[in-house]
Amino acid sequence: MTIKTDIAPTGAQDADDAAPLSGHSASAPSMIDPFGRAVTYLRVSVTDRCDFRCVYCMAENMTFLPKREVLSLEELDRLCTTFIEKGVRKLRLTGGEPLVRKNIMSLIRNLSRHIKSGALEELTVTTNGSQLAKLAGELVDNGVRRINVSLDTLNPDRFKQITRWGELDKVLNGIEAAKAAGLQVKINMVALKNANDHEIVPMMEWCHANGHDLTLIETMPLGEIDEDRTDQYLPLSQVRSQLSERFTLNDIPYKTGGPARYVNVKETGGRLGFITPMTHNFCESCNRVRVTCTGQLYMCLGQDDMRDLRAPLRASEGNELLSQAIDEAISRKPKGHDFVIGRNKGPAAVARHMSVTGG
Ligand code: SAM
Ligand code: SF4
Questions:
Q1: Which residue of 126, 189, 288 sits with most ligand 1 atoms within 8 Å of its CB, as the best mutation to test the pocket?
Q2: Rounded mean pLDDT of 213-237?
Q3: Does 116 score more than 70 pLDDT?
Q4: What is the pTM of this model?
Q5: pLDDT for res 5
Q6: What CATH number does the domain containing 165 carry?
Q7: First-residue to last-residue Cα distance in the chain
Q8: 294 in the Ramachandran plot: left (φ > 0), alpha (ψ -120 to 50) or beta?
Q9: Residues within 6 Å of ligand 1 by CB
Q10: How far is CA 237 from CA 27, 199, 251, 274, 356, in A?
Q11: How far apart are the C-alpha atoms of 217 and 239, rounded to whole Å?
Q12: What share of the chain is helix, strand, coil (3-state, %, to 5)?
């Protein structure tokens, strides 16, 4: 089925995230874009593969990339290390599902040296939670302190409908294991019209009762899926005003590495974030770039411009060519995006799936 949008994208937005940045300032960031923004946050998709098929993210029948096109774990380490040397202070591994990549823990273990040295402030992961029961302890052992888990519903049948292949119990056990291992877990929920909108309140109450922040995300027009995106899109401005009728939402200046705006919910005592790429545009404070699992550097999630880093990575053993390619790409980081989910039929606003660029 065709995805409906009527726009042309132009800017930077995020699918998830939010972790407070410490007061600790970055040592002389060297990646400054044309608008004076220092790039200090890198999100790396370590695989395009996933054990789920969420309806807003992927088609059920996905063709994944051949292995030779995907960066090896060694190449991913070199790439991340080069970015850290150039001023990245926060690194998030995502995907696809990062924790299904074979030997992913060896990459995380290697990258944790940058946490130990103090070069990196935070090493973190966005996951669907399916592997957490098995891997939470090792994540903690390797310097990960907080993770984002995507969870759109607490109803097992609906979970199956949304993720197609996922099992709610497994994810809830994973979240439990992560908590027990000492990880701080933030829940990300994509707000979907007529699918989980009535679950926002129960999800918020569950999260806050269990010590998790909750961030709500608007669907973004990324990649062809089997459904009509106009049918899924729910503006968070509407959600917020409905929540305000039942709860006291106080804006708080909670500093995040991501674009979420936070409120404190008086009745639950917890934090609720809103990521609103469609109704608001916070590109002005964008500090991030993303690399796909094939080594393409996207300076903005909502734009098609990218710089290939795989060729310079593979061209020599040293990182000089890679570093030059990064500098050249940062010099053309765009000011922002402007996606809109429209009424007319048309292609996805940005052709690549979120699982390719990494949410
Ligand atoms: N598999 C992991 C997960 O689900 O957390 C990491 C990758 S996933 C692409 C990262 C985040 O992007 C998830 O929170 C997911 O809900 C979100 N996402 C995927 N497609 C999206 C879309 N079209 N619009 C908004 N968020 C999307
Ligand atoms: Fe997989 Fe995450 Fe996309 Fe769902 S949102 S299909 S879990 S990559």
A1: 126
A2: 80
A3: yes
A4: 0.88
A5: 31
A6: 3.20.20.70
A7: 23
A8: alpha
A9: 15-16, 50, 56-57, 94-95, 97, 126-128, 150, 188, 190, 217, 219-220, 222, 354-355, 359
A10: 37, 16, 14, 9, 28
A11: 11
A12: 35, 20, 50
Residue 182, pLDDT score: 98
Stretch (H or E) spanning 215: strand 213-218
Token readout for 167 is 């099992």
One-letter amino acid for residue 279 of the chain = T
How far is it, in rounded angstroms, from Cα 311 to Cα 330?
17
Q: For residue 18, report the distance from its CA to the centre of ligand 2, in Å.
A: 18
pLDDT, tens digit, 9 for 90 and up, residues 130-162: 999 999 999 999 999 999 999 999 999 999 999
Domain count, the chain: 1
Residue 5 within a domain: no
Does residue 55 sit within a domain?
yes
290: enclosing H helix or E strand: strand 288-291
**From the CB of residue 1, how many other CB atoms can be counted at a distance below 10 Å?**
12
Quote the CA–CA distance of 102 and 47 in Å, as a whole number. 10
To the nearest 10 degrees (0 to 180), the angle between helices 156-163 and 168-181 is 100
Range of the domain at 116: 41-187+286-357
Q: Stretch 314-320: mean pLDDT, rounded?
A: 95
The whole-number pLDDT of residue 256 equals 63
Query: In angstroms, what is the C-alpha Rg of the chain?
Result: 19
